[in-house]
């Protein structure tokens, strides 16, 4: 179990984790923006979110997603980007890491959203929001992250298969 907990060490694995983590974070932001645009909520979100808060949220998502991809990819690849583990095990690991990523991102989200409210003197909504984030928020974050991890694992398997075809 100790070998699964260690992050990847080869430069190729680190690069693949960085690329996949960046792809995942950017894709999540694009999907979120499209959903907000189609539902008509984009204008209200953009007016209530400062540039610094938006940058902090994206940076936190990007950091946690790359970290999670590093952890997920440990021991997955053989010498030539061949998947060394069975694909089912890789997808299960990616789903689990996606769930953990959702839970790890949640405190960043809470702090980034709470700081402006606290600076404005709105302590009661922050306390109530803390209760929501601390209880059902963790379960929802894990579930959403798990499902997104499953989706991205499937997309990554296709992309890595294409990369192997190009490299041959």
Task: Briefly characterize the structure.
With 168 residues, the chain is mostly helical. It contains seven helices and no strands.
Tally of DSSP β-strands: 0
Largest sheet: none
Q: What is the ordering of alpha helices and beta strands?
A: HHHHHHH
Q: State the helicity in percent bands.
A: over 70%
Whole-number radius of gyration?
18 Å
Instruction: Give the overall pLDDT as a whole number.
Output: 83
Distance between the termini: 33 Å
Strand content: under 5%
Uncertain segments: 1-8
The total of helices stands at 7
What class do helices, strands and sheet pairing give? Answer: mainly alpha
Globally, the shape reads elongated
Please provide a written account of the structure.
By secondary structure, the chain is mainly alpha-helical. The chain contains 7 helices and no strands. It is elongated. It starts with a helix and ends with a helix.
Task: Please describe the topology of this protein.
Elements: H1 2-5, H2 11-39, H3 42-48, H4 51-73, H5 87-119, H6 123-134, H7 136-167
Helix pairs in contact: 2-4, 4-5, 5-6, 5-7
Structural key phrases:
168 residues; 7 helices
């Amino acid at each position: 179990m100790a070998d699964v907990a260690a992050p990847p060490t080869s430069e190729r694995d680190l690069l693949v984790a960085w690329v996949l983590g960046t792809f995942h974070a950017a894709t999540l932001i694009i999907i979120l923006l499209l959903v907000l645009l189609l539902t008509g909520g984009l204008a209200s979100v953009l007016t209530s979110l400062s540039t610094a808060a938006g940058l902090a949220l994206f940076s936190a998502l990007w950091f946690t997603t790359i970290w999670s991809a590093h952890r997920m990819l440990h021991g997955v690849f053989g010498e030539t980007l061949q998947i060394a583990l069975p694909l089912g095990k890789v997808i299960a690991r990616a789903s689990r890491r996606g769930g953990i990523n959702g839970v790890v991102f949640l405190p960043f989200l809470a702090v980034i959203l709470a700081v402006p409210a606290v600076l404005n003197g709105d302590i009661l909504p922050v306390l109530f929001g803390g209760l929501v984030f601390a209880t059902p928020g963790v379960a929802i974050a894990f579930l959403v992250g798990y499902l997104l991890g499953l989706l991205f694992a499937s997309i990554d398997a296709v992309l890595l298969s294409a990369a192997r075809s190009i490299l041959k």
